[in-house]
Structures are given as structure tokens and as C-alpha cells.
Amino acid sequence: MAAQQPGGQPITSPYAPDFLRDDGRLDLPDGLAVLAARALDQIMAADSEWRDLWQDAAAGDVNPALDAVRGLRRVLTA
After folding, report:
1. Domain boundaries along the sequence of the chain
2. Segment 1-17, tens digit of pLDDT
């Protein structure tokens, strides 16, 4: 979803489905970015087990998982 937004990072992984790696844009329903951002809000909530697990795995102040989610949310809500 974020890769399809302006400013989104293209998907370049050879493991991604071909339709996600195409240079063209997908025809996504209006409002889908808002729903995706809300889903990210849920996993970043204080009571989220996902967040707890990744926070515990962090090395000091550096947390690539939480930073990646924040970056995706920024693109989705821009």
C-alpha cells in the first residue's frame, strides 16, 4: 500500500509478487491508505503485543522495526 503512495519506496524484493514490483500503479480503492494507517496505529498502540516484542528486541534507542512502521505510516498519511 505505501509503495503505491507518492513518496513511497518501491518494492524491489525478488520475493515480492510480480504485480507489486511493476513500475505501474495499482488501482486501489479510495480510503485504503486510511485503513492501512489505522492498522499500523493498532500495532503501535501501547497495549500491542507486536510492539512489546519488538521493543524488547531493540538494541538501545535504535529500533528498525518501529522506525519502519513509523515511516510507512508517514507515507500513508501524507
Report:
1. 2-77
2. 888 888 888 888 888 88
